[in-house]
Q: What sequence folds into this?
């Protein structure tokens, strides 16, 4: 019996792409009012797939250029910077 993956079937591929687009709410970025009303991808899923790829690339780029908390903490050089950092973290924790 030959094994086929979901990507071998166009309908399964479309369903997977639509699920991914809906999962990260790409309908918010869509210029198609049908998608925004439905709060789901209702148009050409390949366009949403392109948006998803662009969104993931932008997200990855931000992650690479922004320091993580460990790096920020490592760069703290004075007591004043430490107090400011702790105050900033405290405010951020209150938003959760």
A:
């Amino acid at each position: 019996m030959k094994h086929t993956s979901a990507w071998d079937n166009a309908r399964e591929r479309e369903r997977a792409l639509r699920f991914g687009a809906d999962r990260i709410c790409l309908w918010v970025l869509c210029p198609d009012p049908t998608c925004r009303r439905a709060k789901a991808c209702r148009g050409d899923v390949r366009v949403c797939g392109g948006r998803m790829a662009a969104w993931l690339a932008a997200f990855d780029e931000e992650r690479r250029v922004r320091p993580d908390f460990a790096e920020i903490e490592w760069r703290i050089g004075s007591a004043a910077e430490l107090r400011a950092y702790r105050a900033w973290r405290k405010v951020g924790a209150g938003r959760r």
